[in-house]
Structures are given as structure tokens and as C-alpha cells.
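Dear all,

This email documents one entry for the complex benchmark we are building for the journal club exercise. For each entry we list the sequence lines for every component of the assembly. Then comes the predicted three-dimensional structure of the complex as a C-alpha cell string, followed by one or two observations. Please use this as the template for your own entries, and keep the labels exactly as they appear.
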Amino acid sequence: MDKFARNLMGAAFVALAVAGTGVGAGTQALADTPKDALVMAWQFDDIISLDPAEIFELSGAEYGAQVYERLISYDVNDVSKILPGLAESWEVSGDGKTYTFKIRDGVEFHSGNALTAEDAAYSLRRAVKLNKSPAFILTQFGFTKDNVDQKVRATDARTLVMETDQAYAPTFVLYCLTAGVASIVDSKLVQQNEKDGDFGTNWLKTNSAGSGPFKLRQWKASEMLMLDAYPGYWQGGPAMKRVIIRHIPEPATQRLLLEKGDVDVARNLKPEQFEPLRASKDIRLVEAPKGTLWYISLNQKNEILAKPEVRKAMRYLVDYDALRGSIMNGLGTVHQAFLPKGFLGAVEDKPFKYDPAKARELLAAAGYPDGFTVTMDVRNTSPTMDIAQTIQASAAAAGVKIELLPMDGKQALTKYRARNQDIYIGQWGPDYQDPHTNAETFASNPNNADDGASKTLAWRNAWDIPELTKKTASAVLERDASKRAETYRELQKTVMEDSPFVVMFQQVEVPAVRTNVEGLVWGPSFDTNLYRLATKK
Amino acid sequence: MRRVAGLLASVALTLLGLLLVTFLIGRVVPIDPVLAAVGDRANAETYERMRQELGLDLPLWQQFGLYVADVVRGDLGTSVLTSRPVLEDVARVFPATLELATAAVVIGVVLGIPAGVMAAVHRGRWPDHLVRVLGLVGYSVPVFWLGLVGLLLFYAKLDWAPGPGRLDVFYDGLVDPVTGILTVDALLAGETEIFWNALSHLVLPASILGYFSIAYISRMTRSFMLDQLRQEYITTARVKGLSEARVVWRHALGNIAVPLITVVALSYATLLEGSVLTETVFAWPGLGQYITNSLLSADMNAVLGGTLVVGAVFIGLNLLSDLLYRLLDPRARR
């Protein structure tokens, strides 16, 4: 646009702004958020429900962590340390199948109702009977809607007994109890709002019944989420009287709001927006490693990709360091094992580097000296698309031509679950804090038939591995924690050396926070991002 | 009477056609709606239960039949994303779009019509060129870019306008939603401070959106006007010694009022549905943003419901301008 037209446009704008409403220059827009409220800009349109028995999206999990509590928690700085939550202590029986929890005394729900072992039993039974997406985290211990009333019970107001079907590793059971689906709800309040045997789920979708530091004030889907502090919280009420989270879909808009001081935190800035902000004295970029992994996977239904040398070659065709420096730019660190750093038994070796010459040798051994052509399904979002394009370029150096098929995320997932892809690029985040969550998906495939019920990532790539499947299943029954960790290390090394999975990065979340805000906790998973200790100067 | 019945039948058929097309598009989109509802990690049993809950195990024609039967009863189904009735959802977000589009159309009329008249009167001279250039920019510049530039300039740099959203955060949720149109609700509640705040939030997005309707309205006004200025009665009026202003603004403009109403109604309908990008940039929680979100999450009931409402509004406004045309223009009643 030439200067003349630009000036014209500017003139037109001013005319519009003035003529349109009679509000002209001089009306100062209010900046700066209130001192006792935390305001956040975030894309949270993935929230489907606010019922902790149903929440299974990242932003929903973060909400659940502010409002509800669980029996068990863990140290956000060292995930291997399991800590008491609403249960102040616990015992495991000699046969390893009975867990007895002592419930903390004197905790009250937001409603003023006392929190007892009855509430804990009700909450776990409710999650199992509702059987929503995250319910498997509990039902994998043998609970069904028919037996859970016997298996999970309160023997008195402060004692909860839980019986599992096998002698699982205690760490496995306890980590699963730190998951959102094991949140304790106010059974009296929920039952008052039950309709037609729905366990109050329709009410809980838009209301809260928890004991956490905040309670829900208002939720408007894809618009805003408002929390009020709960002054009676047993570990002390939050300094922030209110938390307001606004759904701002556009990163550029988020940055504007943050720089103006209209929000305190922006959650979805892009790497290219970081540089100018690093110089700002009002804004701080926080880097919080998360458990999410970036990987590419090779469908074994494709006969080329099923050759072991080709699988190996692909590991040398990703330019890990270049990607980390350019596109990820702080959003990820190089990681090549299926357990994220911070998990029990996580392997931190990085044996693979970009080496097209070595890849060529391997491809020649497989019978493809001039490379081959495949397609890659890519979500048309940033940075997925950028990563895919970089891989396309680096793989071409060994003659591997990758055709990118951009598509919507839900579409890519639909195709992936039907095993119709060649190469998939995506992210995988753990469902709970125990290593089994990732071992089960990357190293277990109980039935490789097309109608196999368990659609693990191994199944989605048609990787038939009876031996590894057995080994993965045995690891959850190993009660000695150090032996258990060793099994996971072996599993990771096997998958790292030869599998359809090329794990590339571990995600780092980069929230941008105004410097007058302190005390926000950015833990290793979304449900360990905590607002309770936040203060504002 | 027969004509009215025929008209209503054609409206119903149009809506049915719209439903069918949207429904089929929703079914051929390579996205699994069950997956959208239960998430990627649900077990097979949960998945199957949801499939039956959504009625996806039935044959396609039966699904459509059931859907239409529900719609006729005023039931647009339940949204997977918000787990509320779609009708309630749409009723909740529509006022925001209505408010934005209405403000935009007012701006479009107030500035677009005079601009078009001036362009016609000074045909080929600088006012005409100016209006044409502004119109061209309005047509060719993407709205989200203009929106962001507007935010950068008036909000970030000059501080004249407040930021995205319908209200400053601390006013959120203080006024009971009566109509859902915040400016009106604030006035009803007697909260003048909130009223001004809501109004100031409306200025920028409505101006950006209004700019696009100015372009359209001024161009149409100009061509109608040129038509009129060539007519004999204008020459007669000038010969009779009426002032030029009177000739233009009273006689000529009076005569094009009726076709202009049609233009304004159509541009209003376009604004109601065309605010999608504006709503995204300004984080304006209206129908456009709602349908976009629903599409991206394969929430088919919500997409169908939203589309139906947009279609109904479009048809309704068309019908209205048609009726007004017949009512106001004596020639149409012959």
C-alpha cells in the first residue's frame, strides 16, 4: 500500500471512531488489572466439561487442579516424591491388594460440609460408574460399576479402604490417585443436584463442589472462566480474591493485552513473539517443562516404513538441534525416549543426531539407495506445520521425499485411529504421572487386528509386539520401585533403538507473565499449574 | 393469501435444503464426531456408548429424519462442547453478534449513503475518487489484518479505544443478562459506567466491520443516484429553480430510498454472518466465533443449529426487504 492510501485509511479510521459513537480522543482506556485479581488470556476452547470425573483436556485439568483436591499429590519439583494430599497417610497390606487411607481431619468443602472418607468413597465410585473418558485410570485396578461399592468403601469417617484386583506396584496405584479423575467431590452437594441418576454430572459441568483454594464463579464456554478464592482453604486462602481467565483465540491479541497490562498472563504466545518480549522489563517469560512429547511415527502397514533399516534411517533424518533452535525456540528441549524427563525411570540419552550420510547407508542396505516417497499427515497449526516442513527438507538430503498433507487436528486424529496414514507427526501427553501411561501406549499392543479395541499408539502404527506387550504388563506388578524403574529403562531403550517412533522433543510451556505478579506455580503437568500462591505488587 | 402460503412454503423448502446440505457436509467431513465428544483416549466401550447416544449407529436418512423432526419441535439438539441445548447456546451468543452487526450497519448507513451521494454528484472529480479508493481498500484488505492494525493503533499506541472483549474484565458478570445486548442491559440496570464501557468496547470492532459495509453501501448508493440524476424530473426540478441540495437530497434520494432499504437489509444479513474473523480478532463471543469453534471441534449439532439460525436470519431479512419494497414502492403493487 502506498503512503497516500495509508494516510487515507488512517483518516477514515479516525473519522469512523469519532463519528461512529461520539467518543473521540481523550477518553483514556482503563489499563492495569485490579490488585486482588489475576487476569489471564488463554485459548481454552477445548473445555468440554467441568466435572472432574469427565475432565480430560489440558485446560480443563488445570481448572480442576485449582478447585478440587485428591487423596495423593506429588512434589512439583521432583515428581518421584509422592506426597500426602487429602489423605494424610496410607498403608498397603502384605498381599499388596488392600490400600488403607487416613483422611485428613478438619477439611471443609466450599459449601461448609465436612470432608470425610464417605466423600472420598463416593467420588471414586462415581467416577467409575459414570465411566467417562478418564475413568480407565481407575478401572484398570479391576473396578467395575458392579463391584466398586464393595471394593472402595469408608469404614469410618476418616478411613478409606480400596481393594485392587492384583498386587500392583504401589507407586502405580498412588500416581493414578493423583490424577484429576480421582478428585474428591462434595457428595452431599452433588447428590442434592442429581437428576435421573446422572450422578449430578449435568450440574457439575457448570458448577463446582470442591475443597480446593478456589471455587467456580462463572463459566461461559469459549468465553470466560471466573474463579473466586475460598478463604477457608485448609492450607490458607489465596491472596488473589478472584481469577479471571478470558478466551483470547488470537496470539497477537494476547500479546497486545499483556503489553497494555489488561491481562497479567498470556498463555499462547508464539516463539516469534518471544524475542521482543525478552527485552521488556514489564514482562517475564517462564519456561516450564511439561510431560508432552513431540514425535513422528511410521505406519508399519507401509511396507517401506516397516523395514528395520528404514526405521533406523528416519532417526538420522531429523535435524534435532536446528529444530530446537529455530522453530521450537524455547518451546521444547531435545528428548528421545518415550518417558518424559521427571518420570520414574526416564532415560535421558540422546543417541541420534542429524546424519544424512548414515541414513543413506541404512537406506541402501534396505534396498532404497535413491530413497522413496511417503506422505505425512500434519495438523495445520503452528508449530506442527513448521516442524513438518523442516523434517521434509532434512529428509530430502537422503532422497526421502515426504509429501505433506495438511489437515484439521480432529481430521488427522480420525485418520490416525483408522491407521490410514503413512507418517504422523504429533504430540503425546501422559494421562497420569506414572510411567505406565506412556509405556502402555508406546510399547504395548495387545491385539494388532484392525478391530483391536485398545488403540494404543503402537496399534495405530500397526506395530505388532507380543514380547514388549508382556513386559509392559509385568512392569506394573513389580512392587520394588528400583527394579520397576529398571524395566522401564529397558523398554525405553528398545523403543528408542528400533520402533516406529522417532521421539524428538519434550515440550516446554512458555507463559508470559507481568513482572508485578509472583508466586504462580508452573508444574510438570497442566494440573500442577497452580494459582493459589500468586501475589501482585 | 395464496401468495403468502406459497411464500411460506418456499421459505420452508429453502431452510430444509439448507439443513440437508449442512447435514451432508457434516457427514462427509473426514472427522469422527464421536472422537470429538469423548476425546482421543476413551476406551472402546465409552466410544460405542457415545456413538449410540449421538444416534450415529442409525442409517443416514433416519438420522436426518430424526434431526428434522426435532428441529420442527424447536429442538436443535445438544452441543457436545458445552453440553447445553444448542438453542440456548445460540440464544446466548447471538445478541453479541446482533449488537456488533447493528452498530456496524448504523455506521455503514450514516457514512455510506452520504459518501455514495457525494460520489455520484461529483462524478469523476476528487470526492468520487476518494470514495472509490476507500471502497476498494474496504473490499480488498482482509478484515482480521485491519482489525489487528486498528487494535495496534487505537488501543496499543494511542489508548483511544479499550482492548478486545465486550467489557473491561472487572465489569464482567456484574449486569444481569436481560437481552444479552450489553449496552442495553447496562442501561436497563441503570449502570451508566458499564454502559459507557460496553459502548467504548464496541466502537473499534463495529467501525472495522462497518467499514466493509460502507464500501458496499456507498457503491450501491452511487450507482442508484447516477441513475436518478439522469432522469427528466431532475432536469425539471432544476429548471424550476430548486436549489441543487434540495434536488439531490430530497428528490433523488427520496426516490432511491426503497432499493437502498434492500441493500441495507442485505448488508445487515452479511454482517450478521460475516463477523467471524472480526469476532476472532476482538475476542468477541458471538455467533461467528461459536460456529467456528464448533466446526473445529466437529460439534455437528452446534454447527447445524448455528447455520440454521444464520440461514433463517438471512431469509427473514430478505423477506422483510421484499415486503417493504412492495409496501413502499407503488410500482411494485401494480
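Observations: Residues 122 and 128 of chain B are 6 Å apart (CA to CA). Chain B touches chain A through 75 residues (CB under 8 Å).
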